[in-house]
Amino acid sequence: MQKEAERLTFSLDSKKYSIPIQKVGSINKYLEQLDQSDRETEIKRIQAIAFTSNSGTIYGDFQYSCGTKLCNHTFVQIKNDEIKSIPLHTGSIFSDHTFSPNEKNLAILLGKTKEVILSISDFKKAS
Fold first, then answer.
1. Are residues 65 and 59 in contact, defined by beta-carbon separation less than 8 angstroms?
2. Which end of the chain has the lower number of beta carbons within 10 A, N or C?
């Protein structure tokens, strides 16, 4: 019997979504370091904050490897069934997000002072 692929699940607007863990490189790499029991426990502990852009693209901040308060973060974009991800600052707290008026950039606030700007078109950190 083949084992079902591991998935990250999250809710958005009262709907449940799931994506294969293998599509989110940084989380998959982190989980590969754990034995099976710890891996299953850690997958259950992963949390997500999800939202959409005006154009309907889904974004999610996945928090993993959490300590008492701080977590590592990977940001995910789901557009036309294509999944892209980018690791963000480690050991922080997701606070807020805002799109530029033309939706070319997305600003993410981690904690009170760490801001990350992402270019939406190529889903990379803007310089």
1. no
2. N
Instruction: Identify the DSSP state of 29.
Output: H
Name the pairing type of β-strands 72-79 and 58-64.
antiparallel
In angstroms, the CA 14 to CA 6 distance is 22
Helices 36-45 and 25-32: angle between axes, nearest 10 degrees: 140
Question: Do 45 and 64 contact (CB within 8 A), yes or no?
Answer: yes
Q: What are phi and psi of 44, to 5 degrees?
A: -70, -25
Neighbouring-strand partners of residue 76: 60, 85
DSSP string over 98-119: EE-TTSSEEEEEETTTEEEEEE
pLDDT values of the chain reduced to their tens digit, one per residue, 127 residues: 334 579 999 999 999 999 999 999 999 999 999 999 999 999 999 999 999 999 899 999 999 998 877 889 999 999 988 999 999 878 888 889 999 999 999 999 988 888 889 998 888 888 5
Q: Which residue, among 16, 45, 10, has the nearest Cα to 31 in the 3D structure?
A: 45
**DSSP summary character for residue 43:** H
For residue 39 the two structure tokens come to 């891996």
